[in-house]
Amino acid sequence: MKKLFSPLLFLPLLALLLTSCGGGDYKGYQTRSYTIRGQHYQPLSVEQALTYRERGIASWYDESSFLGLKRGNTSLGEKVMPWHISAAHKTLPLPCVVKVTNLKNGKSLKMRVNDRGPFIAGRIIDVTPRAARKLGFADQGLTDCEVEVISIGDGKYKRKAKRGFSLWPF
C-alpha cells in the first residue's frame, strides 16, 4: 500500500505557510486616516512621502511568536515572524521601504514598513527585534535614528523616492 502522507512533503508546505505574508486588503498604497487612543493621524500623500527624511527616536516591538499564535498581523494583514525585518510608522503610506540609520553607531538597514505605530510620544519608528539587533540597539530599547524613504508601494504601484527634501535640518 502506498503511503499518502510523507513528512518530507509536509515540511516544505509548512515552511511556506509560516513564511507567507497573508496578503493585505489594499491596492496601491494605504493612506487613509485613522484614530488610535483618541489621537487622529493623517498619513502623508505618496508625493510627500517620496521626499521623506526625518531624525528622531527609534524603538523596537515584538508582535510575533514562533508559530504565529500571538497577534502577529500588521496593518496590511501580513504576518510578523521573529526573523522578519520590518517596521511601523504613524504617517508613511503603507507599504514602503525605508533606510533606518542608527545615529549612535552608524549602522543602517533597509526595511519594509507595513504597520502603524509607534504610538508613544517622541518616537518616529518601531522596528522588529531582528532589525533592532542588526542596528545595534536591541539591548538599549531606543536609539537616535534617521529614517529615509527609498520607495513607496509594491509591484506595479512601486515608486522610487526623490531626494532633496528633509524634515530635519542637516
UniProtKB/TrEMBL annotation:
Top-level class of the enzyme under EC nomenclature: lyase
Pfam families in the record: DPBB_1
UniProt signal peptide: 1-23
Locations listed in the record: Cell membrane
InterPro entries xref list: RlpA (IPR034718), RlpA-like_DPBB (IPR009009), RlpA-like_sf (IPR036908), RplA (IPR012997)
GO function terms (MF aspect): lytic endotransglycosylase activity
GO CC, one annotated term: plasma membrane
Enzyme Commission number(s) of this protein: 4.2.2.-
GO annotation terms (biological process): cell wall organization; peptidoglycan metabolic process
Topological type in the membrane: Lipid-anchor
Superkingdom to which the source organism belongs: Bacteria
Swiss-Prot/TrEMBL keywords: Cell membrane, Cell wall biogenesis/degradation, Lipoprotein, Lyase, Membrane, Palmitate, Signal
Matching PROSITE patterns: PROKAR_LIPOPROTEIN
Function recorded in the entry: Lytic transglycosylase with a strong preference for naked glycan strands that lack stem peptides.
Stated family: Belongs to the RlpA family.
Protein name in the entry: Probable endolytic peptidoglycan transglycosylase RlpA
Taxonomic classification: Bacteria, Pseudomonadati, Verrucomicrobiota, Verrucomicrobiia, Verrucomicrobiales
Gene that encodes the chain: rlpA
